[in-house]
Amino acid sequence: SQQGEEDPQALSIQEGENATMNCSYKTSINNLQWYRQNSGRGLVHLILIRSNEREKHSGRLRVTLDTSKKSSSLLITASRAADTASYFCATDGGNQGGKLIFGQGTELSVKP
Amino acid sequence: ETGVTQTPRHLVMGMTNKKSLKCEQHLGHNAMYWYKQSAKKPLELMFVYNFKEQTENNSVPSRFSPECPNSSHLFLHLHTLQPEDSALYLCASSRAAGASGDYEQYFGPGTRLTVT
Fold this sequence. Notes:
- The complex is a heterodimer.
- By secondary structure, chain A is mainly beta.
- Chain A has no helices and 11 strands.
- Chain A is globular.
C-alpha cells in the first residue's frame, strides 16, 4: 500500500520565494527520507530524518517530522530556478528490510 | 547519479524480444534495487538484493527476471513484455538493506523502456 503522500502535487513559485512540501504516511517508521528527481533522471537523496528527530537542516533545506501526525515537511528557502524538479518523500514502513516506500511526489516549478 | 551507472539509457523492444538492463555501482555498496517508475504513479520497488541474495520480490511478473552476480552488478532480464511495461526503470544501491532502512539510496539515471 502506498505510504507517502505528498501535498501539493504541483507547486509553482517565483525565484527567491520559499517552497514548502508536505508528506503524510500511514504506518510507524524508523526514518523518513526526501529525494529530488530532475525530469526523466534518477533520484538524488536530499536528507534523512530519524523518527526521534523533529527537525533537520541541510543548506537551504529544512525538514520537519511529526510522528504523532505521521507527517513531514520539506522547506526550500530562497528558491532558485535550478530547484525545479519533483520531490519525493520515502519511508521505511518500519523494519521492511531496506524497502523504501515512495509517494507520488510534488512537482516544483521555480520561475526565474 | 554519479557512482551508479545504467545501460542502455533508452531501449525500444517488441513484445517478443528478449533484452537485458544492466546496472553497475562503484560505491562499494552491498544492496541493490530495481524500481519501476510509470507516469503519474509512485515509484514501485521491484526487487532488492542484499549481499547478492534476493530479499524482496514485490510480486513482479515472471517476465522480469533479476540477476545479481556480485555486489557491484545487477541485471534485469526482460522477455515477452507488454506495452504497459513501458516505463523508466531505475537501479539504486545502498550500503546495505538494513532492517531499519536507514541507509540512503543512490540512484542511477534510469533506462527509458518502450515496449511496442
